[in-house]
Amino acid sequence: MTISTIRLTGVAAACAFFSINAYAEDSSLTNPAISAVLDGYYQNTERPMSERVEGFGLGHTEVAMSANIDDMFYGKLTAVIEVHDGETELGLEEAFIQTMAMPYGLSMRAGRFLSDIGYLNNQHVHTDAFSDRPAAYRAFLGSHYFDDGLRVSYVAPTDLYWTMGAEAFKGDSMQAADEHGERDYKTIGVYTAFTKIGGDAGINGSWQAGLSYLRNENGRMTAEEHDDHAAVQEDHDHDHSHSAQYTGENTYVADFVYKWAPNGNYKYQHLTLSGEYFRVADFKPLEEEHDDHGSDAHGDSGKDYQDGWYLSSVYQFSPKWSAGVRYGQVDTQLMHDDHFDPQKLKETEVSLAWHHSHFSTVRLQYTNQQGTNFDGIEDDNVITLQYVMTLGAHGAHQF
């Protein structure tokens, strides 16, 4: 063996040793963060389009694992366990990779993940201040929209926080009903675009506003779905596949959130005000839109869109206690025979939560629901007692 060979072998060994040590020093590469979120509840009656049923039950229980794959990529896996009709169901909510070192503020995400449209959708439901998502989310996004696809996003180098992005998804859970099994759905069914801007409001406050657009290539109903569509919509009340209950080709979302805390310290006291508006257009069959010409044949309202909104206020008045109030409503149209019936659901909600720590929450919630021909529900009062407990390391929550 020559001297040059010995030198080369020594350098290679030193580089390998340094590389191993460098990876060992970064604990996120060798020790992934593993956590579980336990969600249990008791509810005195059912709510429309909700996964929670009457009586005792398990809610959105999840097991998650995440880590930096290397210096270029981050990965996360989130499995969800739910109980439906006495059977335990295991689903995959997230399984994605995320770039970490792209230049110019760019990043990419691929796999299965939560869409970044709106304010609440990219957040896990166990972080919510209420037991269920607002009615608009349950109607138009299946509570929270996650799918297989690709996202490209960009953070601008501005004084204010400004991000924008676009996504492409399979869109299976956003497809309009196909009772006869003959519809030719597009493989890439959903495209989204979003922008969000935010900043500080003095030393005590911060804010964020956003606009989002969702194009659903498979969202418009077809004329052949007249006879059975109403029955399918009723069946969706207990659907745990997280499918959208009411779809359309074009969905527009506007959102706003303001957060206040003394000197910006959220640990002991803070207030969050938020709201979102959804407008879902182009849902009627094309043949019937052309024949209708604005008449009331498709419902007494004469509306050619569906919409929904909510306003929420949550105040943590001490380190261990928070209270929230939320009002929301959703206006949809249900196809019945040769016309559309307008529907309206209004929900007024009040919650009181006890947080023994950052990892444990016990919540008591009262909901007054008022439905006008909405899937046949009657006005009712819903009482929910819920616990949300986190085991293990869990990442920071979104703004």
Automatic annotation (TrEMBL):
Keyword line: Signal
Membrane spanning stretches: none
Chain residue ranges for the region called Disordered: 225-244
Alphabetical list of InterPro entries matching this protein: Porin_dom_sf
Signal peptide: 1-24
Composition bias type Basic and acidic residues, residue spans: 225-242
Name assigned to this protein: Zinc-regulated TonB-dependent outer membrane receptor
